[in-house]
Amino acid sequence: MAILGSWITTGISASTLNSAARSSSVFVETFLEPAVQDMAPDGTMAPGQMAQLDTLLADTPLRERLISVKVWRTDGTIIYSTDKDLIGRRFDTADVDRAASGEVVASFDALDNHEGAGERETGLPLIEIYAPLHSAQSGEIVAIGEYYEHAAWLAEDLERTRLFTWAVVGATTAAMIGILYLLVMRSSAIIASQRQQLDQRIAEADLMAAQNEGLRAIADKARLDASEANEQLLGRIGADLHDGPIQMLSLLTLRLSAEEEGDESTLEADRENALIAQNVLTDLRTISAGLVLPEIAEIDLRDALQLAVLRHEGLTGTKVAVQFSGLPQTSPLPLRTCAYRVVQEALNNAHKHARNARTEVSATVSDGHLHLTVSDSGPGMRVEENAVGGREQLGLAGIRNRVNALRGEFFIDQLKGGGTSVNVLLPIDP
After folding, report:
1. The domain made up of 295-427 is a member of CATH 3.40.50.2300
2. What pLDDT is stored for residue 264 in this prediction?
3. Is 56 exposed, middle or buried (0-12, 13-18, 19+ CB in 10 A)?
4. pTM for the whole thing?
5. Domain 2-150: what homologous superfamily?
6. DSSP symbol at 207
7. 106 phi and psi, to 5 degrees?
8. 169-179: per-residue pLDDT in tens?
9. Are 280 and 248 a contacting pair, CB within 8 Å?
10. Where do the domains of the chain lie?
11. Each residue of 28-53: pLDDT tens digit?
12. Are 88 and 115 within 8 A, CB to CB?
């Protein structure tokens, strides 16, 4: 606002000075230009012309307004002045140079030239004007006219303008401050309301997150309980098969094998029935052995995986390569159970589809996850056999369900050059 007030005051002063500069042409054309028409060849003014100017300035009301008058040659030499001591002296001033180029120069209360010492001593507010003086015959600039006008009226006008301007600026500033204050208060209220709403929403989000965390914990426990219940169910089914149908089939096989009387056709039929019963008994024992989970509660993860491999080798008569590294000494029972079942089922599938192929089981731990792989060098599986939504094998579906129950990942890769890789990624703390 201070800048605005100063700018307005400066603008008014400049406008007034421009008006004074335009009005100077009347004084210059009427009084000063006739005096320089008969200048001597050496550039001096005739004594008669100087006396005429002295009389004009001394005996007319013009003297009340004009404090002093000077006439300059274009080279900066004073050839006439109301202060006679300055006549004949030369000064370097930019105002004279500007006027010599045809410009009218006006300034207010800026008496900083060396030749203006007399005017400064008056202590009056003055307008200083430099104007070019032209030859009546050629129109060329032959001299420069300078005069100082008493400008008390301008000083008063500027003071009134300054006071009015600052009053307007002050009122405007107060109004703007009031408006800004109201805007700030309203904005602060809006921000406070929005902050309160945001805090409320954050609190609601935190509460919802805590509830979700509780629900996730409940879901995780339910998954683990379901997995444990499933293993218990499988164990009971295996035990029931062992204690029921297997025992009865064993007894039937012994009886059929012990029959020695009867005709040849009857004996032959009994021997065929005994062979069928023996095959069924073998299949049931194999199924029962697969359902009954070995006691792995007291062993670590490495031993559980090794047990699954050894049991497969004992049932199939095959050899499985193993590569274990970085396995923890302690791990949750659901993790060991799932890893055991994955290796068990993947090895069974490899034996069915790639009976004479090399089989390998590898397991390692990194980034809090168990990386488990069962691979073979067989002919590989068709894409539609392992695709989700296709005719997925029951055993692979069981692996997928077990892994999903522990929030793990399961996928099958077809190896270059033939073979299949079953890959499982399980969190160490499911």
Report:
1. no
2. 57
3. middle
4. 0.42
5. PAS domain (3.30.450.20)
6. H
7. -130, 140
8. 778 888 888 89
9. no
10. 2-150, 244-292, 295-427
11. 667 788 888 888 877 888 888 888 88
12. no
